[in-house]
Amino acid sequence: MRQFIRHPIDVPVEIGLGEADPSGYYTHDISMGGLAVRAGCAVAPGRTVQVRIGCVQPPFEASARVAWCRPHPLSGYELGVTFLDAEDAFRARMVEQLCHIEDYRRSVMRVEGRELDMDEAAQEWIQKYAANFPQIGGGSLH
Asked: pLDDT per residue over 104-120, tens digit each?
């Protein structure tokens, strides 16, 4: 039973498995509770991992637990990780908004040829999309 609404997003993520170098993954979706990531290798459910999203400043870093792991036809595996701390879950939600704003900024440049700085992109994104961005604690998909 899913406790949080998930939102599609494609952001580079590093998952530290206790090895010297963290592995690179891409998020599939994000929610208040955690992330789903596409991975090249299986990771056992219950394992604690370190999550790092470096495309925001400062980089988002948090501990998480692998909730599930299943084969995926395109990427090898898909992992579901849940954050261990409620504050980390809240911060991940803010990272999600920043990623949507950055995606909007790039889209405007590609489609309209307008170059926006992050503040301008944030102001436009808020005007256009913030009302549709689900609120924290906004419900469940059961």
From this structure: 888 899 999 999 988 89
Angle, CA 65 vertex, CA 60 and CA 68 arms, to 5° = 120
The total of structural domains in the chain comes to: 2
For residue 51, count CB atoms less than 10 angstroms from its CB and return exposed for 0-12, middle for 13-18, buried for 19 or more. buried
Compute the residue count for the chain: 142
Q: Checking DSSP bridges between strand 60-72 and strand 76-83, what pairing results, if any?
A: antiparallel
In a domain, 142, yes or no: no
φ, ψ (nearest 5 deg) of residue 94: -70, -40
50, 24 Cβ separation under 8 angstroms: no
Digit-coded pLDDT (tens) for 126-137: 888 877 765 554
Domain-located, residue 99: yes
pLDDT at 30 over 80: no
Task: Of 54, 43, 46, give the one whose Cα is nearest residue 13.
Answer: 54
Structural domain boundaries, residue 16: 7-85
Phi, psi of 42 (to 5 degrees): -75, 145
Alpha helices (runs of H) in 1-142, residue ranges in sequence order:
86-112, 118-129
Place of tokens 């039973």: 1
Q: Which two tokens stand for residue 111?
A: 């489609």
